[in-house]
Specification:
The complex is a heterodimer of chains A (341) and B (194).
Chain A: E1 3-4, H1 12-21, H2 33-40, H3 48-56, H4 62-75, H5 84-88, H6 93-103, H7 108-115, H8 124-134, H9 152-162, H10 169-181, H11 185-198, H12 203-215, H13 219-232, H14 237-249, H15 253-265, H16 272-283, H17 287-300, H18 305-317, H19 321-337
Helix pairs in contact in A: 2-3, 3-4, 4-6, 6-8, 8-9, 10-11, 11-12, 12-13, 13-14, 14-15, 15-16, 16-17, 17-18, 18-19
Chain B: E1 9-10, E2 19-20, H1 28-34, E3 40-42, E4 56-58, H2 79-82, H3 86-90, H4 111-114, H5 119-122, H6 125-128, H7 139-143, E5 146-149, E6 153-156, H8 165-171, H9 176-180, E7 190-191
Antiparallel strand pairs in B: 1-2, 3-4, 5-6
Classes of the chains: A mainly alpha (341), B alpha+beta (194).
């Protein structure tokens, strides 16, 4: 074998060809879990079957299976149900933890019964996740005699554990969500304010605080919270998106569109912000722009059913029946490829 | 820390990879190391000897922490990639390769891997397709590509995977081949290709 010192083409394609020349073949090239994780991160629901296979693959590592469960839960939670009992009963706590987190994506009426056994799980991380998922489902005890919170011990443990890390903005934010779900808005507000004092650029804390102000009817404070965040970091898409929704709520359609466009421009891969931008454009009578936004989104990140459905609907509205039919067919094929029909 | 987790490893007749003579039944050692060498959140107080998930919540494989195939990307340290490996599934523990106190490797170069992987099979141009003693003949250069953090700190992926340039093409994940073969006339001593 002659030594080769100069490699003219050093692309991945070249490397793949070199391996092929050596007789190396990869039978999982088309359905490798990495491709599914990559696609799932871009909202492509066609990744669901491979994620499900990976999650159920007892030959895969716990980390791979747990990650697949988490991605599947975010992408297409309806595909979780048949396998959830298996994952919740797994001997691997990482898989039980992922299953507990994924349950949070299911409708509330399905969650409580599934989570009940995990509230007694021997592993703390699993119990903590169960507490986070259960708290929104269980109304706080009224304090009247005889009415006891069935998860009181679990929730007390959650508070005790989290309270040891009040120096961390992320923990303060998690605790805030927990308190809000328990109905203690005042505590939730205070925790988020504390998180932002520690890190004014904590994006999730800031968006949550603005949302909390909104639920309290204080849109002015919500606006100030978001605008302060944007002044600190103008490249934070979540802040722009939240501000856009605020503008729309206040009837400032033009400002809302501008903020939405900014949020969309900051998305690494065109996805939900682009979809909402297109809907807003269409609502404002900018149907050509809406279709252009959707087409660009579909080109860059195919397999998103909401984008395809909007393309179908807006094409129909524009009188372009041929395109509408094409998108209808593609939507049907996408849904089938996701294992939904 | 107990070194019992290292276990004893034996070659079956004709095998070129050693296997543990007894299954590793405790994660005590790697969970102890993982408390620092993992990307995780902290849950309450540290309790030596408890399972990792009793004191921490581990970050899963997701972007931007990891590449879609599970290779390290952001600062995820070692544990998260190691537990994706076949080595972990086979019962390899941290101290099979590292001194637990100094973190130094237990042998020089390919000698670490040759503890369990027969050198005549794997440390051989028929396997690695590179000239002996060239960069590409080092096991870690193909199976544990490194990534530079903070401009000075090179860390190796511990999932010990087969280079997959095809996944680079479809997902953008890096591959060990192109980590070296990325400069003109790099002179890496590749055999029989190009």
């Amino acid at each position: 074998m002659p030594a080769t010192n100069a490699i003219a083409d050093q692309s991945a394609d070249w490397a793949y060809s070199a391996l092929a020349d050596w007789g190396v073949t990869f039978t999982d090239r088309r359905n490798h879990p990495a491709r599914a994780v990559h696609a799932a991160g871009r909202g492509d629901i066609r990744a669901a079957p491979v994620l499900l296979d990976t999650a159920n693959d007892t030959g895969a590592t716990g980390m791979q299976r747990a990650s697949a469960i988490t991605h599947l839960g975010r992408l297409l939670p309806e595909q979780l149900m048949p396998s959830l009992p298996l994952w919740l009963g797994s001997r691997d706590p990482l898989i039980r933890l992922a299953a507990a987190e994924a349950i949070g994506q299911l409708p509330p009426e399905q969650r409580q019964a599934l989570l009940m056994p995990l509230s007694q799980d021997p592993v703390l991380a699993v119990r903590m996740m169960s507490a986070e998922q259960l708290v929104g489902l269980v109304p706080a005890a009224s304090g009247s005699p005889g009415q006891k919170d069935p998860f009181e011990a679990l929730f007390r443990e959650y508070m005790t554990v989290q309270s040891q890390h009040l120096d961390m903005p992320s923990v303060l934010t998690q605790l805030s969500s927990f308190q809000q779900a328990r109905g203690d808005t005042e505590a939730a507000l205070s925790l988020l304010q504390s998180a932002l004092r520690k890190n004014p650029e904590a994006s999730v804390s800031r968006v949550n605080l603005a949302d909390l102000y909104r639920t309290l009817g204080n849109e002015a404070a919500a606006r100030e919270t978001l605008e302060t965040g944007i002044a600190l970091n103008a490249d934070d898409g979540a802040l722009w998106f939240s501000l856009a929704l605020l503008e729309v709520r206040e009837g400032n359609a033009e400002q809302g569109l501008r903020a939405l466009a900014k949020a969309a421009s900051l998305e690494e891969t065109p996805g939900y912000y682009h979809y909402v931008l297109a809907v807003a454009q269409n609502d404002q009578g900018l149907s050509t722009e809406a279709l252009a936004t959707l087409k660009a989104t579909h080109r860059a990140a195919p397999g998103q059913p909401n984008v395809l459905a909007a393309l179908m609907q807006y094409s129909q509205l524009a009188g372009d029946r041929q395109s509408a039919q094409r998108y209808r067919d593609e939507l049907r094929a996408t849904v089938q490829a996701a294992g939904l029909q | 820390m107990s070194l019992k987790a290292r276990g004893t490893w034996q070659w079956a007749e004709g095998a070129d990879i050693a296997q543990r003579s007894e299954l590793l039944t405790s994660n005590h050692q790697i969970d102890s190391c993982a408390r620092c060498h993992a990307r995780r959140g902290t849950l309450g107080e540290y309790h030596p000897g408890k399972p990792l998930l009793d004191t921490h919540r581990l970050a899963i494989v997701e972007e931007p922490l990891y590449w879609p195939d599970g290779q390290i990307r952001d600062e995820v340290y070692v544990y998260g990639s190691f537990i994706q490996s076949k080595m972990h599934q086979a019962g390899v523990a941290c101290t099979n390769c590292h001194n637990p106190h100094s973190n130094q490797l237990v042998a020089e170069g390919n000698g670490v891997c040759a503890q369990c992987h027969l050198a005549s099979t794997y440390d051989n141009p028929t396997h690695h397709r590179h000239q002996i003693a060239s960069a590409g003949s080092a096991c870690v250069d193909c199976h544990m590509p490194s990534q530079l953090y903070m401009g000075v700190d090179s860390r190796r992926d511990h999932s010990m995977r087969i280079p997959r340039p095809d996944l680079s093409m479809s997902t953008g994940a890096p591959n060990a081949c192109n980590q070296c073969h990325s400069r003109p006339k790099c002179g890496l001593g590749l055999l029989g290709a190009g």
